[in-house]
Structure formats: C-alpha cells, structure tokens
Amino acid sequence: MQRPTIGQLRYFLKDSIRKTINFGHTDQSRGVPAPPIQKPYETGVQLITLSDFDKITCLNEISLNQAIIKRRSQRSYKSESLSLEEISYLLYVTQGIRIKISDNVALRTVPSAGARHPFETYICATHIRDLQQGIYRYLPVEHKLFLHRSESNLKSRLTHAAFGQDFVGNAPAVFIWTTIPYRMEWRYGEAAHKAILLDAGHVCQNLYLAVQDISCGTCAVAAYDQEAMDQLLDLNTEEEFVIYLAPVGKI
Ligand SMILES: Cc1cc2nc3c(=O)[nH]c(=O)nc-3n(C[C@H](O)[C@H](O)[C@H](O)COP(=O)(O)O)c2cc1C
After folding, report:
1. 98 in a domain, yes or no?
2. In Å, what is the CA distance from 242 to each residue of 4, 57, 119, 223?
3. Ligand 1 centre from 174 Cα, in Å?
4. E strand spans, the chain
5. What is the reported pTM?
6. Is any ligand 1 atom within 6 A of the Cβ of residue 165?
7. Do the domain assignments include residue 18?
8. Domain assignment present for 27
C-alpha cells in the first residue's frame, strides 16, 4: 500500500467527506439492523457486580472547578491498590449508561456522535482489591464486569505493548478502550472515523476529571504498539481494535 501524503492525511481532520457520501446507501438507510450497543459475551460467564453510581461512598466530592483547574497527567502512582467501588465509579463516568432508549440506543455519561458509542472498555487489573489479576471487560448495559482473560505477565506485557512506558505496566489498573468502528459506520459510512476519535477524547477527559475525586491520577496514552496491544486483548482486529488507554493509580 502506498503511504498517504501529509495532505491526504490532513483530509481526515476535515468533515469534507460528509458531502461526498450518499447517506441513502449507508447500512442504516438500507435497513440493515443496528449493531448491538455492547459486544455480545458468552452466556454462563461469571459476572462481577459493580457498585451503583448513586450508592458510591468513596468520593472526595471535590468541585468541578477544582477538578478542571487541577487536572494534569500523572505518570507515577503509589503501590496502593484500588477498590472495586472506585473502579465502578470510573467505569460509570466514562462509559456508563444513563438512559437505555431501546435495545439499539442508549445515552451514556459521555456524548457520542449520533449516540453510536463505538467503544468497549477493558480493565487490566494488577492491583484491584477483590479482583484477581487479569483483563476484564465492562458491560455497560448490566453495569457489570467479567474476566475476559487471565494473564500472568500482565505488567510486563502492558509495558512492552506501550512501547516501554513503564508507568502503564506499573499502574494498579489500566483502562483500555477499543473501538468497534462498524457501530459508527452503520450510520455515517466513511464519515465515521473522525467522529470515533472525537468521541474517545470525551471518554478520557471524564476519566481525567473523575480520578481526582478518588485521590488518583491518570495519563492519556495514544503511543502504543497497535499489534501487541490488540494481541494482549485477544481481539478480532477485523472488527475491533485498541484506540486509547489510560493507567490509573493513587497519587
Ligand atoms: C491524545 C493524547 C495522547 C497522549 N499520549 C501520551 C503517551 O503516549 N504517553 C505519555 O506519557 N503521555 C501522553 N499524553 C499526555 C500528554 O503528554 C499530556 O497531556 C501533555 O504533556 C500535557 O500535560 P498535562 O496533561 O499534564 O496538561 C497524551 C495525551 C493525549 C491527549
């Protein structure tokens, strides 16, 4: 494949493509059923109950102003573990469902173009109380987790897949967001991809603001070895791949 020029790559930042799309031909317009709002999972898998958002008691209750003013990227964390209640809170504020409108549409705690919400959240847990080490997947519809896969070398594989950024492997929890692009493409065709990246920014910003309420820090990470990170999560990369990640730990 010929490498695109800088000019061609910049085109991706513009919305010009929208004017070239025949929206009568998108899968949505052609009557193809909407993809599920959450990646399906095997029946019988053991689900882990998370704390309901309105029953969370571990917050510092800092003001939104303080959270915005003090926000910064933190790359060093205490060795202290995180609680499942803290993880419940962070999952809800980054991808939780506020209102389920139908089986195919849900509104969440973050905005998303056309409410398509094209992400899945995986938690790499190395030091979360009441969770054995492993890679978990969040189920926003149920607000539950399940063990996606066990991995004994999690810390070193994370650091390796983050191009040696060891604060990633050293964090007690790492949020990894994948995208399932078809959820957005189903409606927007080739105009989907810019929107997916804009959506991802909102998710991570909510994490940046919310971690401060539990005395934690985070750092957005977009420099990672795509293939190694996808392999770590054992993804079918035709349909889903890693797009962004963020380690979280006490500071
Ligand atoms: C899209 C994006 C990608 C980033 N990728 C990395 C990364 O791979 N490694 C890293 O250490 N910091 C990364 N950062 C954090 C930035 O370096 C950081 O936001 C910037 O230096 C400003 O510092 P501040 O967040 O403390 O204000 C990333 C931030 C963003 C928004």
Report:
1. yes
2. 22, 32, 9, 11
3. 15
4. 47-49, 97-100, 106-108, 119-125, 134-139, 144-149, 173-179, 216-218, 241-250
5. 0.97
6. yes
7. no
8. no
Per-residue pLDDT in tens (0 to 9) along the chain, 251 residues: 789 999 999 999 999 999 998 888 899 999 999 999 999 999 999 999 999 999 999 999 999 999 999 999 999 999 999 999 999 999 999 999 999 999 899 999 999 999 999 999 999 999 999 899 999 999 999 999 999 999 999 999 999 999 999 999 999 999 999 999 999 999 999 999 999 999 999 999 999 999 999 999 999 999 999 999 999 999 999 999 999 999 999 99
**162 lies in some domain:** yes
| Residues 121/138, Cβ–Cβ less than 8 Å | yes
Tally of domains in the chain = 1
Give nearest CA residue, ligand 1 atom 19.
73
What's the domain range around 55?
Answer: 45-250
Q: Which of 128, 65, 62, 45 is nearest to 91 (CA)?
A: 128
| Residue 73 CA to ligand 1 centre (angstroms) | 7
**β-bridge mates for residue 124, sequence order:** 135, 174
The domain spanning residue 121 has which CATH number?
Answer: 3.40.109.10
Instruction: Quickly count: other Cβ atoms within 10 Å of residue 9's Cβ.
Output: 10
Residue among 73, 176, 205, 225 whose CB has most ligand 1 atoms within 8 A, to mutate: 73
Does the beta carbon of 218 sit less than 6 angstroms from any atom of ligand 1?
no
Residue 208 Cα to ligand 1 midpoint, Å, equals 11
